[in-house]
Amino acid sequence: xxxxxxxxxxxxxxxxxxxxxxxxxxxxxxxxxxxxxxxxxxxxxxxxxxxxxxxxxxxxxxxxxxxxxxxxxxxxxxxxxxxxxxxxxxxxxxxxxxxxxxxxxxxxxxxxxxxxxxxxxxxxxxxxxxxxxxxxxxxxxxxxxxxxxxxxxxxxxxxxxxxxxxxxxxxxxxxxxxxxxxxxxxxxxxxxxxxxxxxxxxxxxxxxxxxxxxxxxxxxxxxxxxxxxxxxxxxxxxxxxxxxxxxxxxxxxxxxxxxxxxxxxxxxxxxxxxxxxxxxxxxxxxxxxxxxxxxxxxxxxxxxxxxxxxxxxxxxxxxxxxxxxxxxxxxxxxxxxxxxxxxxxxxxxxxxxxxxxxxxxxxxxxxxxxxxxxxxxxxxxxxxxxxxxxxxxxxxxxxxxxxxxxxxxxxxxxxxxxxxxxxxxxxxxxxxxxxxxxxxxxxxxxxxxxxxxxxxxxxxxxxxxxxxxxxxxxxxxx
Length: 478
Hints:
The protein is an alpha/beta fold.
């Protein structure tokens, strides 16, 4: 409708009045809400102006355009403090390329196996709408919240994270604007610019991006099928003098591995002896599948010495727009986190916090998580089965999270295969972006949470198989 009205405006004189809302409703056969949204699009583009009680009018075209400027001076200004080699004390490597690869929505005719969020059909939209409505009716919803976050929401996160042990209280929790914001706050608070920070290898590209943007130097520590190699972790702390280690102990992104209990204890011991913090990114706690065994407790629930700074978010299990997360810390570290959060953003909007609280305390949230666990299991099995049927290497898929980590034959050009798969009709993610240094082998990450149904997973497996044939990747024919 907006496109049609935009075209029709060419026939109107400046300041001429458009037909009334009632006329447009009848002409287009839509609701008054749809008419209002279409008009709002044109208002935002400056094509029309709306005068309440009077009507909508075409904007005048007697505006003098600004002359085209010269922006080349910015190349000098942005690089002047980077030093002769581009790595001086003021240098910052701020690259969002790896994140954009998963955040950018592919065209409608392309099957999305690269996204990091649930498909709309998997999101609890009704529960979210009801929670938003209830929150909107609460007195004080639009007033300023406590800087640390709503006390009730902080208490809920404390119980959710520490479990029956009650190792945390509301005072140990800081509400953040989602998991990425929590990760940024933690790294900027605990590591000085220019210092090393230990990360798993491979690891979530967002960790690498945040670290480099903060002027930190990511140092990789390899992961195997029991989680991070603790023998190499101890060596890395000793060799680098790092004071921070970032890890995802549960359904690690991208490998899907779970840190074994013996290694969990070792991670805490090694970090304590090194006088270092462990940033525990527990992003997948609410993405366990229906056939998943009992989950191990978070590192934060086993920590008595304030070593662990734990972060958790509601975003992955609910909606990309419910950007509510939590950071936990004990001791002076909490005040440092709080200060950085306040400087960066003051506080998280109260309406969003109130909505999150309404959501998680209601029975609809538990119902959603049970349904999600079953659906994720179904999708995991469907994609793994389709890959095996087409001759891809055998999978031992994790029983949690939303992706598979597919190792490719040596010598495979990841970028070439990703491009060929996209031409075939599916979007996948190259594995190279998940490594802080050189990748030991080519990989793809395949997400099964962003598709509409299992039929799309079957079609996507076909696309990948055809792409392998096109670029000469030696995969069996099944």
